[in-house]
Amino acid sequence: MDYAKYTPIITHAIECGKVVINGRKVSSVREIVNNGDVISHTLHRHEPPVTAQAIGIVHEDNDMIVINKPAGVPVHPAGRYNYNSIVEIMRAERGHGWNPLPCNRLDRLTSGVMFIGKHPKAAEKLTDQIMARTVKKEYVARVIGEFPVEDIICDQPVMQISPKLGLNRARASGKDARTIFKRLAYYPPPAPTSDIQSTSTDDHSNEAMLKKGGMTWKAKKGYSIVRCLPLTGRTHQLRVHLQFLGHPIANDPIYCNQRVFGPSLAAGDALSDDDDDIISKLSKMGKSEVAEAMAYHDEMMEEYNKRKAEKMTGELCDVCATPLYSDPGPHELGIYLHAKRYACQDGNWEYETPLPEWARPPPGMEGPADTTKETDPMALIDEGRQLKPEVKASVGNDLLEHSKLRGPLWVMPG
After folding, report:
1. Of 306, 287, 281, which Cα lies nearest the Cα of 296?
2. Quick check: is 370 catalytic?
3. What is the pLDDT of residue 225?
């Protein structure tokens, strides 16, 4: 190892008193160290806050812990996150001598079912099942607008545009990707307090103007709860497919962000060549600009809460000169995407969580408090079931063909 490049850093630490001998600040970098001296280096790091919601336990035995991961908490220490991660939180709760072994992963913003091996043999056994493509998984999402009632199969390929920013898009030249979607519920916006009949014409007129101006998302009223069954496992596959279908996840700071994707939110877009522009806009989010998804407009979030979001403050830490961020707002700690169910294809085991609070009926409205057999997307891949050769879904005013199924329907997410 070339230690020469670290010399200025070490010298600065010694001169600032961060490196001490026997608890005493040294007078010079040339001070002689004697046998038995204890050299200490004190430092600190900045770490973003995460939700205080506890890690839920779905099942536990001698080999495995099945958890309900809270949204907003990364699985492993990475980037600015270290102790605020699933692995480190569980280690702190159960003893630092224990090494949690995640067998699957979820994005930081996603909640739901995760498997934590208690020892290497148990983790390896489940990992082998996943690698052998014998584990099925189901998610639930809350999307803008009224999602179609019929079964939707989206098979738009997905391409990674920027690994650094975690940006993926629907692209014909991307990797094969396929998802089954089934609507669980639709919740229209509350009826206006004024006379509905008198405003009906105005509403239709405004809706037509919004669509004509390319702001289709503003014409989509209310929100839907959608069950999602990924048949492949591309990064951000569900988020990208829902965006392509014109029903992005309502509070997704990337794929439901008008500042990044423009008024249409990239609905039905698999051909545009604006990736560099998208990357440039997205790189500002959370730094010079607040990441603002469309849900924040729809829910009429107070201006105070909009300002209470994570971005660079322009200030530096007095101790280490690290650029400082403001704390994220509660609305930034997760998105409306939840890994609800994992099941072994052979039927040997199945683990499921309740619906998250954001997927349940809003106050004053009726709807399913949990998933139903009638809307089960896994039923579509049971032996002997066939799907229509072509499935269409509405994106804006157009009908886009999404699926001409070829080969086996079931392909384990990789």
Report:
1. 306
2. no
3. 97
